[in-house]
Amino acid sequence: MIEIAANPFDYSFELQKTALLIIDMQRDFIERGGFGETLGNDVTRLQAIVPTVRRVLDAWRERGGFVVHTREAHRPDLSNCPPTKRLRGNPTLRIGDRGPMGRILIAGEPGSEIVRELAPVDGELVIDKPGKGAFYATALHDELQRRGVTHLVVMGVTTEVCVQTTLREANDRGYEGLLVEDGTESYFPEFKAATLAMIRAQGAIVGWTAPSERLIAALRA
Ligand code: C5J
Question: Cα of 177 to ligand 1 centre, how many Å?
């Protein structure tokens, strides 16, 4: 059993029953010319967490833990992208439009790939998801159940959109979720802070949060 001092109280997990779930660390959100930037956001905020996510990933891999990566990626014919999602807001390029890294948020396009530093390796599961939550319209729950996973350690972007939605979906399905505080980021610092507070409020109503250094120290102890 691995135990870390987390918020609002200690979080314990068995490595064999826990997945490291890395949400949407894709070029489309993190690099210039992708979806995040077309919406008018400063992507450097998200780039800044890549080394931290990599440090946790390295420690997790060293212990032989199971890793799941998600990508927000739609079918090329957009049949799993509701028009309401595509038409929302006023981006310079919409989902499916061609940008500098290929078609925006479309599976198989360069922009939908996970950033090079965090690229999946053999044995890690990659889930393409059409929604914000990683459980919606994907095989994630079945894949986790098949492996006996009960706990999820979560990182990725963006904190208040796909990360928070996934943590709430996980909570409803009975998983114990921990969000790595400096392993997640938002284009809006105030939204990140509010999300961390909401997750751990009321006695971990959605889940726990903890800084990466505590998780890494516990993994390497
Ligand atoms: C967004 C995500 N922000 N991965 N997607 O649209 O959080």
Answer: 19
pLDDT at 89 over 90: no
Report the chain's C-alpha Rg in angstroms: 16
* Alpha helix (H) residue ranges in 109-188: 140-146, 164-172
- For residue 205, report the distance from its CA to the centre of ligand 1, in Å: 22
55 contacts 180 by C-beta, under 8 angstroms: no
pLDDT digits over 15-29, tens only?
999 999 999 999 999
Cβ count near 63 (within 10 Å): 11
How far apart are alpha carbons 171 and 36 in whole angstroms? 27
Structure tokens at 162: 């796909």
Exactly one of 81, 132, 162, 192 is catalytic; name it.
162
Give percent above pLDDT 70 in the chain: 100
Nearest Cα neighbor of 162 from 138, 186, 145 is 186
Q: In the chain, at which residue ranges do the beta strands (DSSP E only) sit?
A: 2-4, 11-13, 18-23, 66-72, 98-99, 102-103, 125-129, 151-157, 176-185, 208-210
pLDDT at 117 > cutoff 90: yes
Ligand 1 atom at minimum distance from 158 CA: 7
- Residue 152, pLDDT > 90, answer yes
8 A C-beta contact, residue 11 and residue 210: yes
